[in-house]
Amino acid sequence: MADCFDGNVLAAKSFARFGVTHMFGVVGIPVTGLANRAVQLGIRFIAFHNEQSAGYAASAYGYLTGQPGLLLTVSGPGCVHGLAGLSNAMINTWPMVMISGSSDQKDFGRGDFQELDQIEAVQPFSKFSVKAKDIKEIPDCVARVLDHAVSGRPGGCYLDLPTDVLHQTITESEAEKLLTEVEKVRVFEATKAPPSSEIEKAVIVLRKAERPLIVFGKGAAYGRAEGELKKLVERTGIPFLPTPMGKGLVNDDHELAASAARSLAICKCDVALVVGARLNWLLHFGESPKWDKDVKFILVDVSEEEIKLRKPHLGLAGDAKKVLEMINKEIKDDPFCLGKSHPWVEAISKKVKDNVSKMEAQLAKDVVPFNFLTPMRIIRDAILRVGSPAPVVVSEGANTMDVGRSVLVQTEPRTRLDAGTWGTMGVGLGYCIAAAVANPERLVVAVEGDSGFGFSAMEVETLVRYKLPVVVIVFNNGGVYGGDRRSPEEVSGPFKDDPAPTSFVPGAAYHTLIEAFGGKGYLVGTPDELKSALSESFSARKPAVINVIIDPFAGAESGRMQHKN
């Protein structure tokens, strides 16, 4: 009798054959066999405690590698938990595939174990969803979700594998035939580029501008556009402004960096070349009063729909790297450069110097009990001392993330992961694990608020289990924004003696959590203690948690978003 294997093996073979090397997830009925077979076939499976964190890891892995990040979940509740990661991938436009087991098809609608119409459940968060209704459909379904995840504007896709399909069998020769057929018909999308006439128009607008600005975001980072961006900045002398996750594409310390003069740069520029960044809330929708009402936007985006939505002066639909390459080529034939003495460059430069010197004066003070600035400066200096390859910084929290964005310096591309377009809290440990797996040569340093850390703190066990070089620094100020911020009038009612909705247990010993699993914990409250903990943990490159005790009244409620709360 010919060798036979089941749907678990065929799914694992399909993923391995089509280039998948990593998978994140939580196993159980009916997908444990699929995870085990994937490992057998050379796919590294990172097992989490919670599908939410595993999903965040898969989404970040997609961003960091340019390949779809895979999340494997059980049926029903597992699929629902996984929606956090799938939706995060969709909003941030990162390639990801969620694979969930599902009910036996013949029992669907009768109250089967963990029954849910999962195709319907994922619909708002998935650009493409498919159910393999028979074992012979598995290779084609796998190829389609992988291809859709990276085509056009990247995003999340969903593959549904019913229990009965996973248990069906097929001969080895039949499986090989199916895999070969699918490989033959896979079509990979060509790099998208606008017509050269549009590039010429864009360069004319830039050339005539009196106060041009280059803005770039994580879309440019995803597109590996750093080389062309740096060339453009240095060839034209135009100041640049990265969005938070665009930081590091061009060194934050570059003389044309306008981050420390952000308000001036966006308010006064007359032309803004926006590359791989959407004119959403992070960029004030491109509207006045933050921007000049007559500013001309040149929008570079892989999505024509995005360009139509924003109605810029000029839209260049295409891959960020390719479009910048074309712009650089056009400029090279007839070069222009603003020069350091250009009034606009001088104005930006002066504002940057003024603001940096004010910030450095604040950072120079050793404030104990710690505010946010003192430990952040010590962390910044420790990270910079690591050199290259630079650590990946993962940042989440309200005050912790806001202060970190201003203080921490990114010198290399794709080395900052934060709450992103959706402002998602709880991404921290998942992102750390994805970064450590995607970039094994880099140290990963998480700078977390205690509230942000709490969402996924149990995954410190995952760090220890896989021996990942991740140091998690928790800014512990006793709660969301920093403990009880209520006025006396607000402390009333029958439950007035309960802790405030923003409060946690004061002085929580977060560092002992990782010690329970064999990792290293540090409790610090002074500059010397923090310097010592950072030096030791960075050198060891082993899982660690540094519990930094912060003055509970040091931060602001809602960080920089008070107007929304």
Give an overview in words.
- The chain is built from 22 helices and 19 strands.
- With 565 residues, the chain is α/β, with parallel strands linked by helices.
- A six-stranded parallel sheet has the order 3-2-4-5-7-6, sandwiched between helices. The chain has a six-stranded parallel sheet with strand order 15-14-16-17-19-18, sandwiched between helices. Strands 10-9-11-12-13 form a five-stranded parallel sheet, with helices on both faces.
- β4, α4 (77-92) and β5 form a beta-alpha-beta unit.
- Catalyzes a carbon-carbon cleavage reaction; cleaves a 2-hydroxy-3-methylacyl-CoA into formyl-CoA and a 2-methyl-branched fatty aldehyde.
- Its cofactor is thiamine diphosphate; Mg(2+).
- This is 2-hydroxyacyl-CoA lyase.
List the topology elements.
Blueprint: E1 4-6, H1 7-17, E2 22-25, H2 32-40, E3 44-47, H3 51-65, E4 69-73, H4 77-92, E5 96-102, H5 118-122, E6 128-131, H6 138-150, E7 156-162, H7 163-167, E8 169-171, H8 172-185, H9 196-208, E9 212-216, H10 218-222, H11 226-236, E10 240-242, H12 262-268, E11 271-275, E12 296-301, H13 304-310, E13 314-317, H14 320-333, H15 343-363, H16 373-386, E14 392-396, H17 399-407, E15 416-417, H18 428-438, E16 444-449, H19 450-456, H20 460-465, E17 470-476, H21 511-515, E18 520-524, H22 527-540, E19 544-549
Helix pairs in contact: 1-2, 1-6, 3-4, 3-18, 9-14, 11-14, 16-22
GO molecular function, one term: magnesium ion binding
Domain Thiamine pyrophosphate enzyme N-terminal TPP-binding: 13-120
Enzyme class: lyase
